[in-house]
Each structure stands twice: as structure tokens, then as C-alpha cells.
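User: Predict the full complex structure for these chains.
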Amino acid sequence: MTEAPTAAPPLPTARECPLDPPAALLERQRSCPVGRLGFPDGAAGWLITGYDNVRAALADPRFSSRKELLRSPFSPHEPTAAEPGFFIYTDPPEHTAQRHLLTGQFTLRRMVSWTERIERIAADCLDAMEAAGPPADLVPSYAMALTSQVICELLGVPHEDRADFQRDSAVILDTGVPLEQAMAAVGSMQRYLRDLVEARRREPSDDIIGGLAGHPELTVEQVANIGFLLLSAGLDTTSNMISLGTYALLTHPEQLDALRADPALIDAAVEELTRYLTVNHYGPIRAAAEDFEFAGVGLKQGETVVLSAFAANRDPARYPEPDRLDFARGGRGHLSFGHGIHQCIGQQLARVEMRIGFSALLGRFPGLRLAVPPGQVPMRDKSLIYGVHSLPVAW
Amino acid sequence: MRIAIDRGKCCGSGMCVLTAPEVFDQDEQDGLVVLRATRPPDDRDEAVREAAALCPAGAIEVSD
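Assistant: Here is the predicted structure of the two-chain assembly.
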């Protein structure tokens, strides 16, 4: 099904239910699974919503990740090239070489070996919450606190710098702050990372920045940008999974009861929550690297394609009763971490963080509940990474 | 069941290790897949097939 470019509708974003995709997006999946998409600058691209097609596209090298080709579905600005080190926005061979520098740091075994460290961080956050007494906003006191400290460990941010680092991260990721304040925090963070890289060049350390700083072929700017990429890709996502995931648990009492009754269900619960919530709800985004035919449709070089992982994760052809949160199902094979060569490099760390994040929280507070009616929890409707702005809880 | 891995395609996601840890491992240096057994015991068949299906890079081939 094709439409004239001037008639191409924009990406549906308005949700009727806070945890479900827009009805209009699921309607596209039913009626027009590979269809025209309108962009703010007037150009037309494509929206692909079926599980099999989204998965195939993510593994197909004819869909490029180069930033200079990717139009935003929301902003009319001309796309710009990626800064050095932001390998998420590159294709092979540049992508392969840069990602390869990091894969050894993110192995499953290595991330699982962090379990004790992450448990300790979670316990400290929960101690502080307990000492302050209910109610608490789970977002800053737990979700952000836990995940930003894990990023600090990963990057090797010295303890004495962590308060400033976490403050800057919080501002950068806060969708509510004025643009100048956000840009100032970005500048401050980038300067800090460059200084850290320089320091590690003089004295190497056993963490990601320390490991890359001494690399003969990487510039200080590249290493600092890799650090910034890991920070921006790995903090908001995991933090929102923990807070939005807790909201999902507290509003699905049968699933919460099942998890409390059988704590070994946690890994399946994490996977199913990751499928169900798909916090990266507007992507991934690619562009046609050449003219080619895909799923019976002719793509033209340069056209931007939105591959809706959120719609794909709710495809009834892949997950029967897809809109049911069901830990017994397990949610394996979801596309929330993507697929193909760009699949989230931090996914195993994210799984460990979520496993510990949810288990420790539920273990510490058997009476955990929302401190406000569910309808009063403010949702990050306008953010690229979905979640809750705040989650008032009591115990 | 025989398993073939292509380290050239492997992107080090660790999904195979997560799915069938008795059969797959990751090189600690480069994070790429390492086979622990080319012919694993039969009770691992389903897990191995799932690992091959989940591999984001299509680096695992399974044949009977």
C-alpha cells in the first residue's frame, strides 16, 4: 500500500493507555505494515511495524545507521553527521572497528561478575530510602541513583567526582529543563570526560575509559565521546525501565504476586517487562542506503525508515495476546534491545541491573505500593525514552 | 546436532551464552563467541536452536 508523499501521515504518538502503544500505531500494523510516513520537513519515508519485517530490516545492511541520513520524525532540522566516537550512527566498516573495541568489556560473564557490586549500590539506595521514610519518589532515590552509579563504575569515574557527574547526568536527561541548562550540563560532562581520558592516559585503570584511553589509534575526543555515548544510551533507558517497570508491577497485582511467590521468575519477568514496555518507543530509525525492494515495497536511497520495535513487540503474530503482561510467557526474542550488528551493547548489563533493581526493591519493601492513584503518575509522553517523570511510592 | 559458528559475523552480544551457557561462551578479550562443544548432549538441542534464532548477527548455524 503506498500513498502520495504529500498525504503521508506522521508517526502516531498519542497513547490512550499509558503502557500501550498508540491505537493508531497498532492500526498501521494491521492495515499497512509497510507504509508511508510523513516527516516534519515535508519529506516522506516509511514506517514498518510487523515483527518479522522489523527484525529482518535490522539485520539488513541496506538499511543504514549513518546519522547524516536519518531524519527525525519530530524535528524538521537537517540531519548532521555523527561526532567521532558515536559509532551507533555509523555503518560497517567504521562501526565494526569501533564497536569491536568494546565488546570484550560487555561480555555476559563480566556483567554478571558485577552482581555483588550492583547489589551493594542497590542496598545503599534502599537504606537511604528506608532512613528517610515513606513516601519516596522512586525516580531520583532509586532508579536514577542506582543506574547512574553503575555507569560511574563502568566508566571508572572516581568516587570524589561522582556527585557532580550524577548531577550533570540528571540534568542532561531531564526533559523538563530549559535548553541552555541542558547544553551547559552537556558541555560540562564532555569537558569532564576529556579530562578523565587525559588522566587515564597518564595512569591507566581497569574500566572502560581506562582501557580505551591508552589506545594508540583513538583520539581523546573519540574516547570521551564513546564515554558520553555509553552514558546517554545506557542511563536513561535502564533508569526508566526500573521506574516504569515498578509502575507496571504495582498496577499488575497478579503478576507482582506471581513474582513475589516465585522469585526465580525474575529473569522471565525482566524479559517480559522489557518487551511490554519498550521504553525506546519511537525507534530504531534507519535510512535506505540504496534503492531496493523490501517486503514488496520500493525504497529509494536516502528515505528514512522508522522500524517500530514497540509495535513489533506487540505483534499478535509473534506474541499471542501481546498486550497482556505475562511473566510466564518470558518475552524472549523481543526487539527492545534491537537486532543485528547495532543490538544494544549494554544489554547484558541492563539485564543484571534490572534483575537486581527489581529483586532488591521488592525484597526490601514487601508492602511496596503506589502513594498516588495510578492515573496521577506523570508519564514522559514527549520523551524519546518513555517512562515516568516521578513515581511516588510508599511501603 | 552439529553447530557451526562464524566469528566474522559475531558481534559479541552474549545472547547465545545467556540461552545455552553449557554450549556457548565468549572470549574474554574480544567478546566473540567460543564453542564449548561442537556436538552437545541432546537435551541441549532446543536451547541451541533458540540461541541460533536469537543471535542478532546470524552467526550460529545448526544442522542435524
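The CA atoms of residues 3 and 62 of chain B lie 5 Å apart.
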